[in-house]
């Protein structure tokens, strides 16, 4: 397999932006790519940077209802609201060129997935992607089209037998789960804040997949306030085991960084350092179980200056095999840009100074701990269905 990697990026991807004051601002992407470039993360002949044209309607129809795609066209071209299909809500306001902007993100993820599958590249990343809430017939949660689901469908059409999708966004990856609910050949794993406290209100341990696909939906619904130790412990207790048991041909991951303690929309307390560690663990897992075939996507994350650029620059560094030392100072050129643009200082280093340590699940279970009870519920729900031993008896 080639050692080349693909980074999906072009200025046109900044067009996916719901407007002033909306959390899903393309400033997140601009600052990320500028930080990665200032640290020379993307330098080297082994990194190919590739843009994307908007996906054709026929490709979108592999996941999305044609009537919904037509409604997005109408919204983009004529400003036509369709609240039943989620177009024109506070979460998903209509904006000019909405269809082209969202379809471009999809094509970027599909092209990257197929490049990985064909062996053209070993890994690929699209930080503009990871729009995991979009449903087949409706926009939802800042997501118009579901690029992750379309990319997985494209992998299946290209011959991938089994695809594993791991989502570490603070919000449940409900759209991807819904698309593949009854597909035994796609594993969806979501590590998120409990739906009792956070949109979209789903992702409970008892959601394990539809008839004939039981065990292929895995949900770890974390208590609000969970920090590094609990977040990493939950990941360690569930994710590697279920992915290994599934034996995927390709690993697709979503790296929403809104689990961070500074994120304004969620209630988890995770550090950039822990997010970096999980990205590295997923990279290693791709090599262990999928021959290195790995597509990494962005997602949520609304601490635009302090978190998203650092978290996703770490992700980019891991994908392209140039990991950034957490102790690295943030370059003065990037800090000056932040100060000139926003009138404030950015973070001084690529670390939050966290140790990102945890007690592994193998060290024992504490029935008085909320986090441990959540993890045990997930293991009890899905481990037997995947042929794994559990500790709930």
From TrEMBL:
Domain Histone deacetylase: 22-316
Bilayer-crossing regions: none
SUPFAM superfamilies referenced in this protein's UniProt entry, alphabetically: Arginase/deacetylase (SSF52768)
Keyword GTP-binding: no
Pathway the protein acts in: Ketone degradation; acetoin degradation
One of the Pfam families matching this protein, by short name: Hist_deacetyl
Gene Ontology MF terms: histone deacetylase activity
Keyword Acyltransferase assigned: no
Keywords: Acetoin catabolism
Family: Belongs to the histone deacetylase family.
PANTHER family: HISTONE DEACETYLASE HDAC1, HISTONE DEACETYLASE HDAC1-RELATED
Identification of the protein by name: Acetoin utilization protein AcuC
Organism: Cellulomonas composti
Lineage of the species this protein comes from: Bacteria, Bacillati, Actinomycetota, Actinomycetes, Micrococcales
């Amino acid at each position: 397999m080639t050692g080349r990697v693909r980074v999906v990026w072009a200025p046109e991807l900044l067009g996916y932006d719901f407007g002033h004051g909306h959390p899903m601002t393309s400033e997140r992407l601009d600052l990320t790519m500028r930080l990665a470039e200032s640290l020379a993360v993307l330098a080297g002949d082994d990194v190919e940077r590739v843009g994307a044209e908007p996906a054709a309607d026929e490709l979108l129809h592999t996941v999305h209802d044609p009537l919904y795609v037509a409604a997005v066209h109408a919204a983009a071209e004529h400003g036509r609201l369709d609240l039943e299909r989620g177009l024109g809500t506070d979460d998903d306001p209509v904006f000019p060129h909405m269809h082209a902007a969202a379809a471009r993100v999809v094509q970027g993820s599909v092209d990257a997935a197929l490049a990985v599958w064909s062996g053209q590249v070993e890994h690929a990343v699209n930080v503009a992607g990871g729009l995991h809430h979009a449903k087949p017939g409706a926009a939802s949660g800042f997501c118009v089209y579901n690029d992750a689901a379309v990319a997985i469908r494209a992998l299946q059409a290209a011959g991938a037998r089994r695809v594993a999708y791991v989502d570490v966004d603070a919000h449940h990856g409900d759209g991807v789960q819904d698309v593949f609910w009854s597909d035994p050949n796609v594993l969806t794993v979501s590590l998120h804040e409990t739906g009792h406290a956070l949109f979209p209100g789903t992702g409970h341990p008892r959601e394990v997949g539809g008839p004939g696909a039981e065990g292929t939906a895995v949900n770890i619904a974390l208590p609000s306030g969970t920090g590094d130790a609990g977040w990493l412990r939950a990941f360690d207790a569930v994710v590697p085991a279920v992915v290994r048991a599934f034996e995927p041909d390709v690993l697709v991951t979503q790296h929403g960084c809104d689990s961070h303690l500074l994120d304004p929309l969620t209630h988890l307390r995770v550090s950039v350092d822990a997010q970096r560690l999980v990205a590295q663990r997923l990279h290693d897992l791709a090599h262990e179980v999928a021959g290195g075939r790995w597509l990494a996507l962005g997602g949520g994350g609304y601490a635009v200056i302090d978190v998203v650029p650092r978290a996703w620059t770490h992700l980019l560094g891991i994908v392209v095999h140039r990991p950034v030392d957490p102790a690295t100072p943030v370059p003065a050129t990037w800090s000056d840009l932040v100060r000139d643009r926003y009138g404030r200082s950015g973070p001084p280093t690529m670390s939050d100074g966290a140790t990102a340590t945890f007690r592994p699940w193998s060290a024992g279970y504490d029935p008085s701990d909320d986090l441990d009870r959540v993890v045990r519920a997930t293991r009890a729900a899905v481990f037997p269905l995947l042929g794994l031993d559990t500790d709930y008896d």
